[in-house]
Amino acid sequence: RTTTRTTMKQQHLTFASLILCLATVCLCHAFSLSISPWLTSSCRHHHHHHRHTSAHHVGTYITFVRTQRSKQSSTTQRWSSPSPSAERATSSTASSSTPKRDLHPPTINAISQALLLRSQNTPSMPLRFIENSSMEPWEITLTAGKIAQRFAEEWLQQMQLDTERYAQSVEEIDEEMQVLAGRTVAVLTRLEELEEELLKRCVRKMEARDGGEELLDVDAFVMLGVPGEEIKAWQANSYNTTDQTIKAAEAIDAAALFDEQVRNNRARSLLAMFLHELEGPGLRKNGVKLPCMNVDFLSEEEWDMLLGPKGSEKTVPSVAAKEEDAAPSKNATSTNMKDAPPRPSLHPLTIDAIEEGLKLRAQNVSTSPLRLIDAQTEWFEVQYTAVKFADRFLEKYTKVSSATKANKEQHTWTEEELQTIGGRIVGVLMRLDDLEWEWSHRISTSSLEIPTNEWKTTLGLHPDNVEQLCPRTLDLAILEENDFARRRAERMLALFLLNVEGPAMKASGNEVPGGSEVDFIDDVPEILELMMPKLKKEQ
Q1: DSSP letter, residue 498
Q2: In 10 A of CB 40, how many CB atoms?
Q3: How many helices (H) and strands (E) does the chain have?
Q4: What is the reported pTM?
Q5: Is there a contact between 65 and 181 (Cβ–Cβ < 8 Å)?
Q6: Alpha-carbon span 43 to 39, nearest angstrom
Q7: Cα–Cα nearest to 535, from 42, 15, 36
Protein backbone atom coordinates (compact mmCIF):
# COMPACT_ATOMS: atom_id res chain seq x y z
CA ARG A 1 0.00 0.00 0.00
CA THR A 2 1.15 3.50 -0.57
CA THR A 3 2.41 5.59 2.31
CA THR A 4 -0.52 7.98 1.95
CA ARG A 5 -3.06 5.22 2.18
CA THR A 6 -1.35 3.63 5.14
CA THR A 7 -1.29 6.94 6.96
CA MET A 8 -4.97 7.53 6.31
CA LYS A 9 -5.85 4.04 7.46
CA GLN A 10 -3.88 4.53 10.66
CA GLN A 11 -5.63 7.83 11.25
CA HIS A 12 -8.99 6.18 10.68
CA LEU A 13 -8.39 3.34 13.10
CA THR A 14 -6.75 5.45 15.76
CA PHE A 15 -9.25 8.28 15.56
CA ALA A 16 -12.15 5.85 15.62
CA SER A 17 -10.66 4.07 18.61
CA LEU A 18 -10.08 7.19 20.67
CA ILE A 19 -13.09 8.99 19.43
CA LEU A 20 -14.90 6.41 20.21
CA CYS A 21 -13.70 5.90 23.71
CA LEU A 22 -17.28 6.56 23.79
CA ALA A 23 -19.50 3.72 24.82
CA THR A 24 -17.16 1.28 26.38
CA VAL A 25 -20.07 0.41 28.52
CA CYS A 26 -19.67 -3.31 29.05
CA LEU A 27 -15.93 -3.34 29.59
CA CYS A 28 -16.40 -3.26 33.33
CA HIS A 29 -19.12 -5.61 34.53
CA ALA A 30 -20.03 -3.65 37.64
CA PHE A 31 -20.03 -0.44 35.66
CA SER A 32 -22.25 -1.93 32.97
CA LEU A 33 -24.82 -2.83 35.61
CA SER A 34 -25.23 0.79 36.53
CA ILE A 35 -24.97 2.35 33.11
CA SER A 36 -27.15 0.02 31.05
CA PRO A 37 -30.45 1.57 32.16
CA TRP A 38 -29.07 4.95 31.12
CA LEU A 39 -28.36 3.70 27.61
CA THR A 40 -31.58 1.86 27.07
CA SER A 41 -34.29 3.83 28.80
CA SER A 42 -36.57 6.25 27.01
CA CYS A 43 -35.71 9.86 26.38
CA ARG A 44 -37.50 12.64 28.20
CA HIS A 45 -38.61 14.86 25.36
CA HIS A 46 -37.44 12.98 22.26
CA HIS A 47 -38.81 9.66 21.05
CA HIS A 48 -35.90 8.28 19.11
CA HIS A 49 -33.29 5.59 18.63
CA HIS A 50 -29.68 5.96 19.65
CA ARG A 51 -27.47 4.48 17.00
CA HIS A 52 -24.00 3.16 17.58
CA THR A 53 -20.79 4.61 18.78
CA SER A 54 -17.71 2.57 19.13
CA ALA A 55 -14.69 2.24 21.30
CA HIS A 56 -11.56 0.23 21.01
CA HIS A 57 -9.19 0.05 23.91
CA VAL A 58 -9.20 -3.64 24.65
CA GLY A 59 -9.75 -4.78 21.13
CA THR A 60 -13.51 -4.49 21.22
CA TYR A 61 -16.11 -1.95 20.29
CA ILE A 62 -19.06 -1.73 22.62
CA THR A 63 -22.04 0.09 21.20
CA PHE A 64 -25.13 1.49 22.76
CA VAL A 65 -28.41 1.19 20.96
CA ARG A 66 -31.66 2.84 21.94
CA THR A 67 -34.46 0.54 20.86
CA GLN A 68 -38.20 0.37 20.51
CA ARG A 69 -38.36 -1.65 23.71
CA SER A 70 -36.58 1.12 25.56
CA LYS A 71 -39.13 3.68 24.39
CA GLN A 72 -41.76 1.80 26.31
CA SER A 73 -39.82 1.84 29.56
CA SER A 74 -40.53 4.32 32.30
CA THR A 75 -38.48 7.48 32.34
CA THR A 76 -38.41 7.34 36.09
CA GLN A 77 -36.28 4.19 36.02
CA ARG A 78 -33.31 5.81 34.35
CA TRP A 79 -30.17 4.77 36.23
CA SER A 80 -32.37 3.94 39.22
CA SER A 81 -31.45 0.82 41.15
CA PRO A 82 -34.09 -1.89 41.34
CA SER A 83 -35.69 -2.63 44.66
CA PRO A 84 -34.11 -5.33 46.83
CA SER A 85 -36.99 -7.68 46.10
CA ALA A 86 -36.64 -7.10 42.39
CA GLU A 87 -32.90 -7.71 42.60
CA ARG A 88 -33.45 -10.94 44.46
CA ALA A 89 -35.96 -12.03 41.86
CA THR A 90 -33.53 -11.17 39.09
CA SER A 91 -30.74 -13.02 40.81
CA SER A 92 -32.95 -16.05 41.29
CA THR A 93 -33.99 -15.99 37.67
CA ALA A 94 -30.42 -15.61 36.43
CA SER A 95 -29.23 -18.52 38.52
CA SER A 96 -31.89 -20.86 37.19
CA SER A 97 -31.19 -23.40 34.48
CA THR A 98 -32.70 -21.33 31.68
CA PRO A 99 -30.56 -21.43 28.52
CA LYS A 100 -28.37 -18.52 27.56
CA ARG A 101 -28.54 -17.02 24.10
CA ASP A 102 -25.68 -17.71 21.72
CA LEU A 103 -24.60 -14.34 20.32
CA HIS A 104 -22.25 -15.81 17.74
CA PRO A 105 -24.83 -16.74 15.05
CA PRO A 106 -26.41 -13.27 14.82
CA THR A 107 -22.96 -11.64 14.89
CA ILE A 108 -21.73 -13.93 12.12
CA ASN A 109 -24.88 -13.20 10.14
CA ALA A 110 -24.33 -9.44 10.47
CA ILE A 111 -20.71 -9.75 9.29
CA SER A 112 -21.75 -12.04 6.44
CA GLN A 113 -24.38 -9.59 5.25
CA ALA A 114 -21.81 -6.79 5.47
CA LEU A 115 -19.51 -8.79 3.18
CA LEU A 116 -22.39 -9.10 0.70
CA LEU A 117 -23.03 -5.38 0.91
CA ARG A 118 -19.36 -4.64 0.33
CA SER A 119 -19.26 -6.90 -2.73
CA GLN A 120 -22.14 -4.89 -4.21
CA ASN A 121 -20.02 -1.71 -4.03
CA THR A 122 -22.86 0.46 -2.76
CA PRO A 123 -21.49 4.04 -2.77
CA SER A 124 -23.60 5.17 0.17
CA MET A 125 -22.45 2.26 2.38
CA PRO A 126 -18.66 1.93 1.95
CA LEU A 127 -16.81 -0.83 3.79
CA ARG A 128 -13.51 -0.58 1.96
CA PHE A 129 -11.31 2.50 1.72
CA ILE A 130 -11.06 3.66 -1.88
CA GLU A 131 -7.83 5.38 -2.78
CA ASN A 132 -7.85 8.63 -4.75
CA SER A 133 -11.54 9.28 -4.04
CA SER A 134 -13.52 11.84 -2.10
CA MET A 135 -14.30 9.20 0.51
CA GLU A 136 -13.26 9.92 4.08
CA PRO A 137 -12.02 7.11 6.34
CA TRP A 138 -14.64 7.70 9.05
CA GLU A 139 -17.37 6.77 6.55
CA ILE A 140 -16.44 3.12 7.05
CA THR A 141 -17.07 3.45 10.77
CA LEU A 142 -20.41 5.08 10.05
CA THR A 143 -21.42 2.24 7.70
CA ALA A 144 -20.34 -0.34 10.27
CA GLY A 145 -22.52 1.39 12.86
CA LYS A 146 -25.57 1.39 10.60
CA ILE A 147 -25.18 -2.34 9.97
CA ALA A 148 -24.66 -3.07 13.66
CA GLN A 149 -27.72 -1.01 14.56
CA ARG A 150 -29.89 -2.85 12.07
CA PHE A 151 -28.91 -6.31 13.21
CA ALA A 152 -29.04 -5.41 16.89
CA GLU A 153 -32.62 -4.24 16.44
CA GLU A 154 -33.52 -7.39 14.50
CA TRP A 155 -31.94 -9.49 17.23
CA LEU A 156 -33.93 -7.65 19.88
CA GLN A 157 -37.18 -8.20 18.02
CA GLN A 158 -36.44 -11.91 17.80
CA MET A 159 -35.45 -11.96 21.47
CA GLN A 160 -38.83 -10.52 22.41
CA LEU A 161 -40.45 -13.55 20.80
CA ASP A 162 -38.32 -15.87 22.95
CA THR A 163 -38.95 -14.34 26.35
CA GLU A 164 -40.43 -17.56 27.71
CA ARG A 165 -37.40 -19.59 26.66
CA TYR A 166 -34.80 -17.09 27.81
CA ALA A 167 -35.65 -15.68 31.25
CA GLN A 168 -33.07 -12.90 31.52
CA SER A 169 -33.01 -9.54 33.22
CA VAL A 170 -33.21 -6.27 31.33
CA GLU A 171 -29.57 -5.61 32.13
CA GLU A 172 -28.46 -8.95 30.68
CA ILE A 173 -30.44 -8.29 27.51
CA ASP A 174 -28.95 -4.80 27.22
CA GLU A 175 -25.45 -6.14 27.69
CA GLU A 176 -25.96 -8.83 25.06
CA MET A 177 -27.30 -6.30 22.58
CA GLN A 178 -24.35 -4.00 23.18
CA VAL A 179 -21.88 -6.85 22.77
CA LEU A 180 -23.50 -8.07 19.55
CA ALA A 181 -23.46 -4.62 17.99
CA GLY A 182 -20.03 -3.85 19.41
CA ARG A 183 -18.37 -6.92 17.96
CA THR A 184 -20.00 -6.29 14.61
CA VAL A 185 -18.56 -2.77 14.50
CA ALA A 186 -15.18 -4.01 15.72
CA VAL A 187 -14.82 -6.58 12.96
CA LEU A 188 -16.18 -4.38 10.18
CA THR A 189 -13.87 -1.48 10.99
CA ARG A 190 -10.92 -3.90 10.86
CA LEU A 191 -11.94 -5.87 7.78
CA GLU A 192 -8.89 -5.01 5.71
CA GLU A 193 -6.39 -5.85 8.43
CA LEU A 194 -8.16 -9.05 9.51
CA GLU A 195 -8.57 -10.24 5.92
CA GLU A 196 -4.95 -9.56 5.09
CA GLU A 197 -3.87 -11.62 8.07
CA LEU A 198 -6.33 -14.37 7.13
CA LEU A 199 -4.86 -14.60 3.62
CA LYS A 200 -1.31 -14.66 4.94
CA ARG A 201 -2.17 -17.52 7.28
CA CYS A 202 -3.68 -19.55 4.46
CA VAL A 203 -0.59 -19.03 2.31
CA ARG A 204 1.72 -19.94 5.20
CA LYS A 205 -0.32 -23.05 5.87
CA MET A 206 0.12 -24.13 2.26
CA GLU A 207 3.85 -23.43 2.22
CA ALA A 208 4.41 -25.20 5.55
CA ARG A 209 3.20 -28.46 4.01
CA ASP A 210 5.46 -28.37 0.97
CA GLY A 211 8.22 -30.11 2.88
CA GLY A 212 6.68 -33.57 2.84
CA GLU A 213 3.37 -33.38 4.66
CA GLU A 214 0.09 -33.76 2.84
CA LEU A 215 -0.26 -30.87 0.42
CA LEU A 216 -3.26 -28.60 0.78
CA ASP A 217 -5.07 -27.64 -2.39
CA VAL A 218 -5.65 -23.93 -2.92
CA ASP A 219 -9.39 -24.55 -2.63
CA ALA A 220 -9.04 -26.24 0.77
CA PHE A 221 -9.40 -22.89 2.50
CA VAL A 222 -12.97 -22.31 1.37
CA MET A 223 -13.95 -23.68 4.77
CA LEU A 224 -12.36 -20.52 6.19
CA GLY A 225 -14.13 -18.32 3.65
CA VAL A 226 -11.05 -17.88 1.47
CA PRO A 227 -11.74 -18.99 -2.14
CA GLY A 228 -8.93 -20.36 -4.25
CA GLU A 229 -9.11 -17.46 -6.70
CA GLU A 230 -8.39 -15.01 -3.91
CA ILE A 231 -5.30 -16.93 -2.81
CA LYS A 232 -4.09 -17.13 -6.42
CA ALA A 233 -4.58 -13.40 -6.88
CA TRP A 234 -2.71 -12.73 -3.63
CA GLN A 235 0.24 -14.92 -4.65
CA ALA A 236 0.38 -13.72 -8.26
CA ASN A 237 0.72 -10.06 -7.23
CA SER A 238 3.11 -10.45 -4.30
CA TYR A 239 5.62 -8.17 -6.05
CA ASN A 240 3.30 -5.18 -5.67
CA THR A 241 1.39 -4.83 -2.41
CA THR A 242 -1.10 -2.33 -3.86
CA ASP A 243 -2.01 -4.59 -6.79
CA GLN A 244 -2.00 -7.57 -4.44
CA THR A 245 -4.65 -5.95 -2.25
CA ILE A 246 -6.77 -4.77 -5.18
CA LYS A 247 -6.76 -8.10 -7.03
CA ALA A 248 -7.47 -10.10 -3.89
CA ALA A 249 -10.36 -7.73 -3.07
CA GLU A 250 -11.83 -8.24 -6.54
CA ALA A 251 -11.61 -12.00 -6.10
CA ILE A 252 -13.35 -12.14 -2.74
CA ASP A 253 -16.04 -9.69 -3.87
CA ALA A 254 -16.77 -11.85 -6.91
CA ALA A 255 -17.14 -14.92 -4.71
CA ALA A 256 -19.05 -13.23 -1.89
CA LEU A 257 -21.56 -11.69 -4.27
CA PHE A 258 -23.10 -15.05 -5.16
CA ASP A 259 -21.81 -17.61 -2.65
CA GLU A 260 -23.53 -17.39 0.71
CA GLN A 261 -21.41 -20.21 2.16
CA VAL A 262 -18.18 -18.35 1.38
CA ARG A 263 -19.56 -15.26 3.10
CA ASN A 264 -20.66 -17.19 6.17
CA ASN A 265 -17.37 -19.09 6.44
CA ARG A 266 -15.38 -15.90 6.12
CA ALA A 267 -17.52 -14.14 8.72
CA ARG A 268 -16.89 -17.04 11.12
CA SER A 269 -13.13 -16.84 10.54
CA LEU A 270 -12.98 -13.07 11.04
CA LEU A 271 -15.03 -13.21 14.22
CA ALA A 272 -12.90 -16.09 15.55
CA MET A 273 -9.68 -14.13 14.95
CA PHE A 274 -11.15 -11.08 16.63
CA LEU A 275 -12.38 -12.96 19.69
CA HIS A 276 -9.30 -15.13 20.08
CA GLU A 277 -6.59 -12.54 19.49
CA LEU A 278 -8.06 -9.07 20.05
CA GLU A 279 -10.99 -9.05 22.43
CA GLY A 280 -10.27 -12.13 24.52
CA PRO A 281 -6.69 -11.54 25.73
CA GLY A 282 -7.30 -7.96 26.86
CA LEU A 283 -10.54 -8.73 28.66
CA ARG A 284 -9.30 -11.87 30.39
CA LYS A 285 -6.10 -10.16 31.47
CA ASN A 286 -8.14 -7.57 33.31
CA GLY A 287 -10.77 -9.97 34.66
CA VAL A 288 -13.57 -8.60 32.50
CA LYS A 289 -16.30 -10.95 31.33
CA LEU A 290 -18.63 -10.50 28.38
CA PRO A 291 -21.27 -12.85 27.01
CA CYS A 292 -20.03 -15.51 24.58
CA MET A 293 -16.30 -14.77 24.76
CA ASN A 294 -15.18 -18.26 23.68
CA VAL A 295 -14.65 -19.37 20.09
CA ASP A 296 -16.88 -22.43 20.13
CA PHE A 297 -18.15 -22.37 16.55
CA LEU A 298 -15.11 -23.79 14.70
CA SER A 299 -14.43 -27.44 13.99
CA GLU A 300 -11.07 -28.84 15.13
CA GLU A 301 -9.79 -28.72 11.55
CA GLU A 302 -10.89 -25.13 11.10
CA TRP A 303 -9.34 -24.12 14.41
CA ASP A 304 -6.03 -25.77 13.48
CA MET A 305 -5.93 -24.05 10.08
CA LEU A 306 -6.93 -20.64 11.39
CA LEU A 307 -5.62 -20.36 14.93
CA GLY A 308 -3.07 -23.16 15.22
CA PRO A 309 -3.22 -26.28 17.43
CA LYS A 310 -5.17 -25.77 20.63
CA GLY A 311 -2.87 -25.34 23.61
CA SER A 312 0.10 -24.59 21.38
CA GLU A 313 2.34 -21.78 22.61
CA LYS A 314 3.48 -21.01 19.10
CA THR A 315 2.51 -17.46 18.24
CA VAL A 316 1.50 -16.38 14.78
CA PRO A 317 1.82 -12.73 13.67
CA SER A 318 -1.64 -11.24 14.00
CA VAL A 319 -3.68 -8.10 14.01
CA ALA A 320 -3.30 -8.01 17.77
CA ALA A 321 0.47 -7.87 17.44
CA LYS A 322 0.18 -5.04 14.93
CA GLU A 323 -2.03 -3.04 17.23
CA GLU A 324 0.24 -3.63 20.21
CA ASP A 325 3.23 -2.55 18.15
CA ALA A 326 1.40 0.60 17.11
CA ALA A 327 0.62 1.55 20.69
CA PRO A 328 3.37 2.89 22.95
CA SER A 329 4.24 0.63 25.86
CA LYS A 330 3.53 1.77 29.38
CA ASN A 331 7.19 1.44 30.33
CA ALA A 332 8.30 3.51 27.39
CA THR A 333 5.63 6.08 28.14
CA SER A 334 6.63 6.26 31.80
CA THR A 335 10.31 6.65 30.91
CA ASN A 336 9.58 9.39 28.42
CA MET A 337 7.34 11.20 30.90
CA LYS A 338 10.12 11.26 33.49
CA ASP A 339 12.56 12.79 31.03
CA ALA A 340 10.13 15.23 29.43
CA PRO A 341 8.69 18.38 31.04
CA PRO A 342 5.08 18.18 32.25
CA ARG A 343 2.52 18.41 29.47
CA PRO A 344 -0.34 20.91 29.65
CA SER A 345 -3.78 19.55 30.48
CA LEU A 346 -6.00 18.45 27.60
CA HIS A 347 -9.12 19.50 29.45
CA PRO A 348 -9.33 23.27 28.74
CA LEU A 349 -9.26 22.80 24.97
CA THR A 350 -11.74 19.92 25.20
CA ILE A 351 -14.09 22.04 27.32
CA ASP A 352 -13.79 24.89 24.78
CA ALA A 353 -14.96 22.50 22.07
CA ILE A 354 -17.83 21.07 24.12
CA GLU A 355 -19.00 24.59 25.01
CA GLU A 356 -18.97 25.50 21.32
CA GLY A 357 -20.81 22.26 20.56
CA LEU A 358 -23.51 23.06 23.12
CA LYS A 359 -24.06 26.42 21.45
CA LEU A 360 -24.22 24.81 18.01
CA ARG A 361 -26.80 22.31 19.24
CA ALA A 362 -28.83 25.10 20.84
CA GLN A 363 -29.27 26.71 17.41
CA ASN A 364 -31.10 23.57 16.17
CA VAL A 365 -29.68 23.84 12.67
CA SER A 366 -31.24 21.06 10.60
CA THR A 367 -28.17 20.77 8.36
CA SER A 368 -25.85 20.24 11.36
CA PRO A 369 -27.95 18.53 14.03
CA LEU A 370 -26.46 17.57 17.36
CA ARG A 371 -29.78 16.16 18.55
CA LEU A 372 -32.76 14.55 16.86
CA ILE A 373 -34.51 17.79 16.00
CA ASP A 374 -37.59 16.24 14.41
CA ALA A 375 -38.95 12.97 13.06
CA GLN A 376 -36.94 13.37 9.86
CA THR A 377 -33.56 13.58 11.60
CA GLU A 378 -31.61 10.30 11.67
CA TRP A 379 -29.10 9.42 14.36
CA PHE A 380 -26.33 8.93 11.83
CA GLU A 381 -26.74 12.62 10.94
CA VAL A 382 -25.96 13.47 14.56
CA GLN A 383 -22.94 11.17 14.41
CA TYR A 384 -21.79 12.83 11.22
CA THR A 385 -22.19 16.30 12.72
CA ALA A 386 -20.31 15.35 15.90
CA VAL A 387 -17.38 13.87 14.01
CA LYS A 388 -17.18 16.74 11.54
CA PHE A 389 -17.49 19.29 14.35
CA ALA A 390 -14.53 17.74 16.20
CA ASP A 391 -12.54 17.53 12.99
CA ARG A 392 -13.17 21.16 12.07
CA PHE A 393 -12.63 22.42 15.60
CA LEU A 394 -9.21 20.80 15.82
CA GLU A 395 -8.34 21.85 12.28
CA LYS A 396 -9.23 25.44 13.14
CA TYR A 397 -7.27 25.25 16.37
CA THR A 398 -4.14 23.78 14.76
CA LYS A 399 -4.22 26.42 12.02
CA VAL A 400 -4.37 29.16 14.63
CA SER A 401 -1.57 27.49 16.55
CA SER A 402 0.60 27.29 13.43
CA ALA A 403 -0.01 30.96 12.70
CA THR A 404 1.15 31.97 16.17
CA LYS A 405 4.27 29.81 16.41
CA ALA A 406 6.32 32.97 16.71
CA ASN A 407 5.00 33.12 20.24
CA LYS A 408 7.40 30.88 22.15
CA GLU A 409 4.78 30.18 24.76
CA GLN A 410 2.40 28.69 22.18
CA HIS A 411 1.92 25.01 22.93
CA THR A 412 2.12 22.30 20.26
CA TRP A 413 0.02 19.21 20.87
CA THR A 414 1.18 15.75 19.92
CA GLU A 415 -0.88 13.71 17.45
CA GLU A 416 -1.95 11.35 20.22
CA GLU A 417 -3.10 14.25 22.38
CA LEU A 418 -5.16 15.71 19.53
CA GLN A 419 -6.72 12.31 18.88
CA THR A 420 -7.64 12.00 22.54
CA ILE A 421 -9.18 15.47 22.56
CA GLY A 422 -11.11 14.68 19.38
CA GLY A 423 -12.35 11.43 20.83
CA ARG A 424 -13.63 13.12 23.96
CA ILE A 425 -15.36 15.85 21.97
CA VAL A 426 -17.28 13.29 19.94
CA GLY A 427 -17.86 11.08 22.96
CA VAL A 428 -19.54 13.87 24.89
CA LEU A 429 -21.47 15.46 22.01
CA MET A 430 -23.02 12.16 20.99
CA ARG A 431 -24.21 11.61 24.56
CA LEU A 432 -25.31 15.12 25.47
CA ASP A 433 -28.98 14.31 25.99
CA ASP A 434 -28.19 11.38 28.26
CA LEU A 435 -25.40 13.10 30.17
CA GLU A 436 -27.59 16.13 30.78
CA TRP A 437 -30.58 14.08 31.85
CA GLU A 438 -28.51 11.92 34.15
CA TRP A 439 -26.83 14.86 35.88
CA SER A 440 -30.13 16.69 36.33
CA HIS A 441 -31.77 13.52 37.63
CA ARG A 442 -29.02 12.84 40.16
CA ILE A 443 -29.12 16.37 41.51
CA SER A 444 -32.89 16.72 41.62
CA THR A 445 -33.39 13.38 43.37
CA SER A 446 -30.60 13.91 45.90
CA SER A 447 -31.06 15.23 49.41
CA LEU A 448 -28.75 18.18 48.77
CA GLU A 449 -30.22 21.64 49.25
CA ILE A 450 -28.62 23.82 46.59
CA PRO A 451 -29.71 27.46 46.27
CA THR A 452 -31.46 28.17 42.99
CA ASN A 453 -28.94 30.86 42.06
CA GLU A 454 -26.10 28.31 42.24
CA TRP A 455 -27.55 25.75 39.84
CA LYS A 456 -26.17 27.46 36.75
CA THR A 457 -22.89 28.75 38.18
CA THR A 458 -21.97 25.63 40.18
CA LEU A 459 -23.79 22.69 38.61
CA GLY A 460 -24.18 23.79 35.02
CA LEU A 461 -27.92 23.07 35.25
CA HIS A 462 -30.97 25.22 34.64
CA PRO A 463 -33.17 25.42 37.76
CA ASP A 464 -36.92 24.95 38.07
CA ASN A 465 -37.04 21.69 36.11
CA VAL A 466 -36.48 23.55 32.83
CA GLU A 467 -34.14 20.75 31.76
CA GLN A 468 -37.08 18.42 31.16
CA LEU A 469 -39.96 20.79 30.51
CA CYS A 470 -38.63 23.41 28.13
CA PRO A 471 -35.60 22.59 25.97
CA ARG A 472 -35.99 25.89 24.11
CA THR A 473 -35.54 27.89 27.31
CA LEU A 474 -32.45 25.84 28.04
CA ASP A 475 -31.08 26.49 24.54
CA LEU A 476 -31.59 30.23 24.91
CA ALA A 477 -29.78 30.24 28.25
CA ILE A 478 -26.82 28.38 26.73
CA LEU A 479 -26.63 30.85 23.84
CA GLU A 480 -26.97 33.96 26.01
CA GLU A 481 -25.10 33.06 29.19
CA ASN A 482 -21.46 32.18 28.54
CA ASP A 483 -20.68 31.27 32.15
CA PHE A 484 -23.59 28.85 32.22
CA ALA A 485 -22.50 27.22 28.95
CA ARG A 486 -18.96 26.89 30.29
CA ARG A 487 -20.03 25.28 33.58
CA ARG A 488 -22.29 22.90 31.69
CA ALA A 489 -19.48 21.88 29.31
CA GLU A 490 -17.25 21.16 32.31
CA ARG A 491 -19.89 18.95 33.92
CA MET A 492 -20.55 17.02 30.73
CA LEU A 493 -16.86 16.26 30.27
CA ALA A 494 -16.48 15.33 33.93
CA LEU A 495 -19.41 12.90 33.76
CA PHE A 496 -17.98 11.35 30.61
CA LEU A 497 -14.53 10.89 32.12
CA LEU A 498 -15.79 9.51 35.43
CA ASN A 499 -18.55 7.27 34.12
CA VAL A 500 -17.43 6.18 30.66
CA GLU A 501 -13.79 6.72 29.75
CA GLY A 502 -12.24 6.22 33.17
CA PRO A 503 -13.84 2.84 33.94
CA ALA A 504 -13.12 1.67 30.39
CA MET A 505 -9.45 2.59 30.68
CA LYS A 506 -9.17 0.90 34.04
CA ALA A 507 -10.81 -2.28 32.77
CA SER A 508 -8.66 -2.43 29.64
CA GLY A 509 -5.40 -1.55 31.36
CA ASN A 510 -4.82 1.24 28.84
CA GLU A 511 -3.97 4.89 29.32
CA VAL A 512 -4.57 8.10 27.43
CA PRO A 513 -2.37 11.20 27.45
CA GLY A 514 -2.84 13.08 30.69
CA GLY A 515 -5.07 10.38 32.13
CA SER A 516 -8.82 10.50 32.74
CA GLU A 517 -8.78 12.36 36.05
CA VAL A 518 -11.18 15.23 36.64
CA ASP A 519 -9.01 18.03 38.02
CA PHE A 520 -10.92 21.01 36.62
CA ILE A 521 -13.89 21.01 39.02
CA ASP A 522 -13.58 21.79 42.71
CA ASP A 523 -16.61 20.12 44.27
CA VAL A 524 -17.64 19.53 47.81
CA PRO A 525 -17.57 15.76 48.55
CA GLU A 526 -21.36 15.45 48.44
CA ILE A 527 -21.58 16.78 44.88
CA LEU A 528 -18.51 14.87 43.72
CA GLU A 529 -20.07 11.64 44.97
CA LEU A 530 -23.12 12.29 42.80
CA MET A 531 -20.90 12.40 39.72
CA MET A 532 -19.29 9.01 40.32
CA PRO A 533 -20.48 5.74 38.72
CA LYS A 534 -23.32 4.15 40.64
CA LEU A 535 -22.34 0.54 41.21
CA LYS A 536 -25.14 -1.88 41.83
CA LYS A 537 -24.55 -4.28 44.69
CA GLU A 538 -24.39 -7.91 43.68
CA GLN A 539 -26.80 -10.18 45.46
Answers
A1: I
A2: 25
A3: 24, 0
A4: 0.62
A5: yes
A6: 10
A7: 36
